[in-house]
From TrEMBL:
Annotated protein name in UniProt: Reverse transcriptase domain-containing protein
CDD domains from the UniProt entry: RT_LTR
PROSITE patterns listed in its UniProt record: RT_POL (PS50878)
Pfam short name (any one): RVT_1
Alphabetized InterPro entries for the sequence: DNA/RNA_pol_sf, Rev_trsase/Diguanyl_cyclase, RNA-dir_DNA_polymerase, RT_dom
Residue ranges of every copy of the Reverse transcriptase domain listed in the record: 1-123
């Protein structure tokens, strides 16, 4: 991030709930309701012992090809840019954001737009 002049911070909405449970593991998430019914989670619930590590590993792997300008930390993605190749920092930053959004669209990860910050000069 050294030498960069524009930054954006993206927050993923309900990150854990965007990860489907392996079918064989669904029964392991069962909880009993007060009426005696069993409820099983089809997506990874918060509170599972390996949920944070699983989610972090997934996000890291998905954005690894973009690591030169997009770092991840759990449900946060930090994009940083500077002027290069005759393009302004804003032009480069918009290209970087577009690539991040392409990965998000392809993998059905959604940003919490209310918690995102776009293109300030520092974070």
């Amino acid at each position: 991030m050294s030498g960069c002049t524009l930054y954006s911070a993206l927050d993923l909405v309900d990150g854990y709930y965007q990860i489907l449970m392996r079918e064989s593991d669904i029964p392991l998430t069962a909880v009993s309701t007060p009426s005696g019914m069993l409820w099983e989670s089809l997506v990874m619930p918060q509170g599972l012992s390996n949920a944070p590590a699983t989610f972090n590993r997934l996000v890291t792997q998905l954005f690894r090809p973009l690591r030169t300008f997009a770092q991840t930390y759990f449900d946060d993605i930090f994009v940083h840019s500077r002027a290069e190749g005759g393009q302004t920092a804003m032009e480069v930053h918009l290209k970087h954001l577009r690539r991040v959004f392409e990965v998000m669209r392809a993998t059905k990860l959604y940003p919490n737009i209310n918690k995102c910050v776009f293109a300030p000069e520092e974070i």
